[in-house]
Amino acid sequence: MNKSKKIIKEQGIAKPDKKELKKEAKSRKNLILIILGLLFIAGGVFVVCYTQLRPRVILTVEGPGKGGANETHTLTYTDAMYNIYNLETMYNTYGMNWDQETGDMTTAESAKKSIIENLEEREVLVMQAEKDGTTLDDNDKKEVEDTVKKTLDQMNDKVKGMKGLSEDDIRAAVTSEKLAEKQKDVIIKGFDIDENKIKAGVSKTDYRQYTLQYYMISKKPDKVEDDSKSASGGAADVKSDAELKKAKTDIEALRKKALTATDFTSLINDTDKNGKDDDTNAQFADHNLLAKDTDFLDEEGRKLVKSLKNDEISKVFETDDGYYFVKMINNNDTAGYDKEVENQIKNEQNTQYDKYYKETLSKQYKFTVGDYWKERVELGHITDK
User: Fold this and answer.
1) What is the pTM (predicted TM-score) of this model?
2) SS3 string of 218-281?
3) pLDDT of 11 higher than 60
4) Rounded to an integer, what distance in angstroms lies between the CA atom of residue 322 and that of residue 205?
5) How many CB atoms within 10 Å of residue 37?
6) Mean of the pLDDT values across residues 197-217?
7) 60 membership: H or E segment, kind and range
């Protein structure tokens, strides 16, 4: 021991200062506390970020999938954004009041219910498609891409930047919808629907279509007509006698022009593209009049129109709202009848499908709606940017 001290002394090594040792220990202790504090803060930040950014599961659908084995499809809040965007856009376009109550739900609550039910049905159909081997062909895929492009073209930059509304997100949602739609058609084809019986039940008399074109000058004052502020039936909604006389003179002149025109559809000069002639405010339109319709012209006007032969141009006639003349394109068009047959067949298909889905198909699956959807999501202004 003495020898060691002697060597240290001879080599010039000073004895450690106790104050310096305490100072260094304290510094090390402070450094450890700082590191621990930083780790604690980093952990807190991680927890907050994870809480905010982790996928929010809003729906799980469990049931038979590919190969007959049970599968589970999980949808997150991000997966629902395309549906939310479409519904909010539609409701806002029509000026819906999200807080308005109908029955025991507000508009927002009803819309929210509609979205989750649509997502449930979509996933069931997708799982059925996977089970049955239903796939999209090239035409289906083209329709998907067309829908994606149309959707993106309608979005502003802020909405495009939202999570769940990227091009890939939209494509995934549209693809699922297209596959579900195709699987629904597969299911419908398995129904026993007597189309001939449905067709026989549609009246050819009632659905006889008169396909026509016409010109009209309104009796309403031009300013009222343009501003769409007229009330029904009031004297203030009718042009002055001088204006009515001019309107009738103008429509008569236009009819005279139509009698020798090679193109009946191009008789007015509409440079400002407002749908009316620049000088006379005459308007052109197509119309498909069904024999049973009562919402076009008045009874006398409809009787006159139905008496026309194909390619015949009527005389100028007057109704409560304006002066008209009509050209008959086809006075016995089957398009109206065919369309009604198609509609009724489609209605029967949907009726049978809805019954099958509600009473049979959906009962094979278990649906679990996530707490985040039930408690946190409020529709109305999520994508209204």
Assistant:
1) 0.76
2) ECCCHHHHHHCCCCCCCHHHCCCHHHHHHHHHHHHHHHHHHHHCCCCCCCCCCCCCCCECCCCC
3) no
4) 29
5) 10
6) 98
7) strand 57-64
